[in-house]
């Protein structure tokens, strides 16, 4: 019956493979060191006949499986490779398990429970909003106070020493004041919680995409992140506090919604019904939005961020709650900061990033080409920045592996920052009259009486204040040569800083670089057309900032909303959009956004938005993982224990055992459902065996499973006596009785859509008669990736490796 | 094997059914006239044994099926019922059919085709942006010119007649000037294209949700809509031009992307590769966003609208293109309108709805409770508005069925509008000094020299200008009593107008009502606290407008973005958000948004965001449609023809015929794929039978199917000779070989998620051995709906009927 169609498939299939392979061969791309496709093809044609039964000794099980796994592992991946996926990352499970326990709970609790849950959700989102704002307020006020202290102290010594010729003193002081916080921050990150390094945005993105990044939403991470980011900014590094704020919001959300903390070993026994990946993800998405909202005072931008970066399946009520949390955050933070600045009633501090308000910015139609050019420059510079950062990260992966080396590296960059700043202040004579001073700590240096050094003004404040100065200072406040030198130096400083073992974001440095070159262009234009009123350098500083940031991160609509909200310049929306579109287009021609680059370098199996094109000739039977391990509907306890000990799989199809008199070597038996490793462990831990009927009756509830979420014990922590190993266990009430499955003849895009839209973790593949023949996991889908290189395209198949 | 688990299922299942039924009985809700659940239950337990084979005569086929269908049809649904789904609406098919023809095309065209398609997409979005802006510009300029003419003429006669005591003359003239355009608009809508009635937002929403509303995206509809909306505004009805703009954008998008027009019988043979539901939907989503962008000058709001109302599966690159189109629209429209107003360089007219720019609006923390109260009032008034409109619509469904009656009705409302306006002007003496006049046509009426009638000012301009006046007029421009009377009268006028046989939106009327009562509250507060500077009536007018609109339409985040963008008042975001959240919460307590109410009254099977809660006890086997009709993989042509003639189904599972020696009454044979009615018709039309191998070889391509999209011929238009009827046809290269399927034991939420996230049309249900036992369609999923009534909840099962 199927002969004809199968033949056609195979024919089409092999011919396309050929054409792709030849196109790959044409391309002398150095990154295509490895051709896993052939390797894989030979693997998938292998005759599969691994089946675990009680009579298979555990030793042989281990050997069979590990030999199979080894074929997919490649020990040596060059540092900086982007063509691999790491097996160290597991998937989150967004597909609810509709087993009998869940139905039981629903039946018992009824609609009142639905209403209660709904209220609890709103309440949690309220708490998320408030707590995120509190953390943001703490970070902001600490930074404000400590930097004031630092720069007032420096100013004092500089002012003293200029006349006394002891400028080495403030320089050393500057070094010391940079070293101390950077040392604390770097040690915290390197030794206590490495996942707190960087901005945290890629990690949150991956989490929302469905990848479990270990420890990413733990309270310890939050603590390190919060202190670390304060250290970064005080340490004078070219890093911002905005990205980390987003990560903090996500952690807060994950913490509050679960009603317990592993770090503090405290279970409040509340919100237990939210203890599953699916619910937690929703809260984290709200937390990330709150974080954006706190960082930029941009509630709409926050919601758009969580939609753009996070949600695969958009849900109106979730978005609505997210919006609510964002708003609460902005509002609370506004109250805190307004009170701190002594203007409580005004509510004029909606976010951490205060870029100052732009009054109406007029622009004329003939400026549109200028906007396009600004965007193009931003795209080019952004692509260049990303490439340099990529190279530096490769270097780091190769040489800076030890923890103490990472700390040293951070200190070196801190020293470099101070040195560059000091050298610029020392050598550049850029004096402006006092009075219209844009800085809190004007320094005279070698300027005349009543003047101050404009260079020192750029360095003797937080980068954020510098951005504000560049946006809003009146025409002529900044010397062109100063700005030009500053752009170049700060560009390299920022490239070197991102990726250090410090908590730091790149929004502010990018904005600062961009606003500096933007202002440079603006002031050049103003000199070319001195009579033109609309050519305001501040406006071009804003456009440059947008272009640079857009060129680096390549976010689109959310970034537009964030910038519009942060500058309150809605009438300026169109120019911003033009600039951001151009920056993205130009940048995407050369490489990917910086977050994506870093995600790829760690091999995180993140799923893109769409399946690769022209992949309809790749079938589920080709991409699925096999051999797999299946369980019978009623299974021997000892067998389960052995199995969990020797394989690392997380999902096991439950099958009716195949009929012994009709051997089918390609199938594992009729598919009945899917059970997870975590569920099996809870069953074993609580001794829910068929021989224990009284236990079964009394206390068997879905709560047992929630109690352990999300960190289940390992199989070695569960003690099962020898007698218990002879018991049987009926898996049917606990397994997911009807997970989504896919026919072996389905295509890769079909599997991809299912994974992406529904947030799956396991997708069993069945044959024509509904017998399991394999299982598709996130990595099997994510490994197919389209590569584009200067207009050419092809299909790439990533390597799967156990290297981080 | 399955016995135990099935027993458990049945037990749980029946017990929950009981509890739900009893809770429904408790509720003496008049709307629960019908209990389809019992009816349905008896139906689904029926013994199913309908199988179509060649030897079944077509007569008996018709009888069997129609007798089954009739059981689901209820002839008499009371007008205004909301508990039914109409069978008149089909689903769109967003799931691509990955058959051999598609693979063939991919193989032939390669990656160049992918790049070309991508460029074409961007180009189409550019065109959509420009064309939507052109239409918006045409509508706006026509309305501007014609209303100027109308009111200047009226002003002339009023000014003349006040002294000469001939005020009946301008009154009659007003009537006539209202009648003429309303007559044209009503006749166009009633006789030419009824789907152009109303705002079109619900229709676009349904289209994006996946329901095929007949003729909704046709060029004829666009023409009627455009002229109709001009007539509405000129006719002085309480309707706006914003909603129709969104619909227009959607039609433009659908038209351009298909490269052909059925109305003009012209096929440009371009963009043929976009001729499928999935691609078309993406363009329509962009068009709707462009429409919002044109209507409100709100590109971000537009994108949010298309996300909030449209997309189920969010896609970053689609959103990015949508954003591009929105921006192009705003920009083009800005150029057009700026040029029209003679200020080309300024670019200060981003959208049709020009609410005037708010300078910074200060607010104090103690005003927050006031914002909450404003939102609550908006929610209450909105719910009240919706309820009244619902009642009026019921009345219309019952009594105003004839086309001429609809025209008369529109004329009556037009007369009423003029009469109310004239009466108010005549009786209310609200005189303000000239000079600070907010209106283009000030009328003196009985006021003193140098004064004008503030009442006439409200009526003698478009509603949009009135909103602007209420937002921006200085304190004391409006008399409280005038406003109070105006609110009441306009409230009822707007209620009566929405749902007329005219193209008209409800944004502007709602904003006008809201701004009037908002200003009333603001002016009251200003009188209570005369020394308080921040209590600006214009600010409260804006909040009132937001509250009223939010209370009526219940949109959330997109509405916030739209209002912020339209008023350029970003610093005022927080108060707007508070007001909109309150309005939605309060309103949702009483009833649904007006669009949802109208959607329900027409029985459109729209899918909500989430499956009803506590429905995990409802299984796929309960909700699926059966009996169904299946086809064999190689099928007789005559049989297919007979089948298509006598059943209305659109999707047919293709099966291996069941083994004759093991009769299985509950299955239709092993599932092999799914073929659509439209595909079968194209196959028959092109005589692609197994006997025609030369045809098969030469010209068989996916283009054949695209040529006919979207309006395929009916089976009666295809002529098949008697000899041809004996031929066989191999369906395997054409069918979808691996559509998503569901196990019979899967739950309703699982089916729902699949439908919602992937935009399915048919979902075959299979048993444990992958044999088809039924099919789930959109209506089967949409019929389960949660009802909430003052805090109580329950599960409702809608009736399916053939009534519109």
UniProtKB/TrEMBL annotation, chains A, B:
Domain of life where this protein originates: Eukaryota
User: Domain CBS: where?
Assistant: 735-797
Residue intervals passing through the bilayer: 119-139, 171-192, 222-240, 283-306, 318-341, 361-386, 407-429, 481-500, 570-587
Kindly state which keywords UniProt assigns to this record, in alphabetical order: CBS domain, Chloride, Ion transport, Membrane, Repeat, Transmembrane, Transmembrane helix, Transport
Do you know which SUPFAM superfamilies this protein is assigned to? CBS-domain pair (SSF54631), Clc chloride channel (SSF81340)
Molecular functions (GO terms)? chloride channel activity
Indicate the principal place this protein occupies in or around the cell. membrane
Q: Name one GO cellular component term.
A: lysosomal membrane
Q: Where in the cell is it found?
A: Membrane
Q: How does it sit in the membrane?
A: Multi-pass membrane protein
Q: Which one Pfam family would you cite for this protein?
A: CBS
Record-stated family: Belongs to the chloride channel (TC 2.A.49) family.
Q: What is this protein called?
A: Chloride channel protein
From what organism does this protein derive? Tetragonisca angustula
């Amino acid at each position: 019956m199927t002969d004809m169609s199968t033949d056609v498939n195979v024919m089409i299939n092999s011919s396309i493979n050929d054409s792709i392979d030849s196109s790959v061969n044409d391309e002398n791309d150095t990154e295509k060191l490895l051709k896993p496709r052939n390797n894989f093809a030979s693997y998938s044609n292998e005759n599969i006949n691994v089946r675990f039964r009680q009579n298979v000794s555990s030793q042989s099980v281990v050997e069979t499986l590990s030999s199979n796994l080894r074929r997919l592992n490649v020990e040596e991946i060059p540092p900086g490779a982007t063509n691999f996926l790491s097996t160290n990352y597991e998937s989150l499970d967004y597909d609810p398990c509709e087993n009998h326990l869940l139905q039981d709970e629903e039946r018992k609790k009824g609609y009142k429970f639905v209403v209660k849950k709904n209220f609890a959700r709103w309440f949690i989102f309220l708490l998320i909003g408030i707590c995120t704002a509190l953390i943001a307020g703490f970070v902001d006020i600490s930074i404000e106070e400590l930097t004031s202290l630092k720069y007032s102290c420096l100013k004092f010594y500089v002012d003293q020493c200029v006349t006394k010729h002891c400028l080495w003193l403030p320089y050393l002081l500057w070094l010391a004041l940079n070293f101390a916080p950077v040392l604390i921050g770097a040690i915290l990150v390197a030794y206590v919680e490495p996942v707190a390094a960087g901005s945290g945005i890629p990690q949150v993105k991956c989490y929302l995409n469905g990848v479990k990044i270990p420890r990413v939403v733990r309270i310890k991470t939050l603590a390190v992140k919060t202190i670390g980011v304060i250290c970064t900014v005080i340490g004078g590094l070219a890093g911002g506090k905005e990205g980390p704020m987003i990560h903090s919001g996500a952690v807060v959300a994950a913490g509050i919604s679960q009603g317990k903390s592993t770090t503090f070993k405290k279970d409040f026994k509340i919100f237990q019904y939210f203890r599953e990946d699916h619910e937690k993800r929703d809260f984290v998405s709200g937390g990330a939005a709150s974080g954006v909202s706190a960082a930029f005072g941009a509630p709409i931008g926050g919601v758009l961020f969580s939609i753009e970066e996070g949600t695969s399946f958009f849900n109106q009520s979730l978005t609505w709650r997210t919006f609510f949390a964002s708003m609460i955050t902005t509002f609370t933070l506004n109250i805190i900061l307004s009170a701190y600045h002594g203007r409580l009633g005004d509510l004029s501090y909606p976010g951490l990033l205060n870029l100052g308000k732009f009054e109406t910015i007029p622009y004329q139609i003939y400026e549109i080409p200028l906007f396009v050019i600004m965007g193009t420059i931003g795209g080019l510079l952004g692509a260049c920045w990303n490439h340099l950062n990529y190279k530096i990260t490769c270097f780091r992966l190769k040489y800076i592996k030890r923890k103490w080396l990472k700390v040293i590296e951070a200190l070196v960059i801190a020293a470099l920052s101070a040195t560059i700043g000091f050298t610029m202040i020392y050598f550049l004579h850029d004096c402006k009259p006092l009075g219209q001073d844009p800085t809190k700590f004007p320094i005279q240096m070698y300027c005349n009486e009543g003047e101050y050094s404009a260079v020192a003004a750029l360095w003797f404040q937080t980068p954020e204040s510098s951005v504000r100065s560049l946006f809003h200072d009146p025409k002529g406040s900044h010397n062109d040569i100063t700005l030009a030198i500053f752009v170049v130096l700060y560009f390299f400083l920022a490239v070197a800083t991102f990726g250090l073992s410090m908590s730091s974001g790149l929004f502010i440095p990018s904005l600062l670089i961009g606003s500096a070159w933007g202002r440079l262009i603006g002031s050049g234009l103003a000199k070319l057309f001195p009579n033109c009123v609309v050519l305001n350098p501040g406006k071009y500083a804003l456009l440059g900032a947008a272009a640079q940031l857009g060129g680096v991160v390549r976010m689109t609509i959310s970034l537009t909303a964030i910038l519009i909200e942060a500058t309150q310049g809605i009438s300026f929306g169109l120019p911003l959009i033009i600039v951001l579109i151009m920056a993205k287009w130009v940048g995407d021609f050369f490489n990917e956004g910086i977050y994506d680059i870093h995600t790829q370098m760690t091999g995180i199996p993140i799923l893109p938005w769409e399946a690769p094109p022209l992949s309809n000739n790749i079938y589920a039977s080709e991409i699925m993982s096999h051999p797999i391990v299946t369980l019978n509907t009623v299974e021997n306890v000892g067998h389960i224990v052995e199995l969990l000990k020797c394989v690392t799989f997380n999902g096991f199809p439950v099958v009716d055992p195949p009929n012994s008199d009709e051997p089918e070597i390609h199938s594992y038996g009729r598919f009945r459902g899917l059970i997870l490793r975590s569920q099996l462990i809870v069953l074993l831990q609580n001794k829910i065996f068929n021989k224990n009927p009284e236990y079964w009756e009394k206390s068997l509830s879905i709560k047992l499973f929630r109690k352990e979420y999300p960190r289940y014990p390992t199989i070695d922590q569960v003690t099962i006596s020898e007698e218990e190993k002879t018991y049987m266990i009926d898996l049917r009430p606990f397994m997911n009785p009807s997970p989504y499955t896919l026919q072996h003849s389905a295509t890769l895009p079909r599997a991809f859509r299912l994974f992406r839209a529904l947030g799956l973790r396991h997708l069993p593949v069945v044959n024509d008669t509904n017998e399991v023949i394999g299982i598709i996991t996130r990595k099997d889908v994510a490994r197919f990736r389209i590569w584009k290189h200067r207009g050419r395209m092809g299909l790439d198949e990533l390597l799967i490796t156990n290297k981080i």
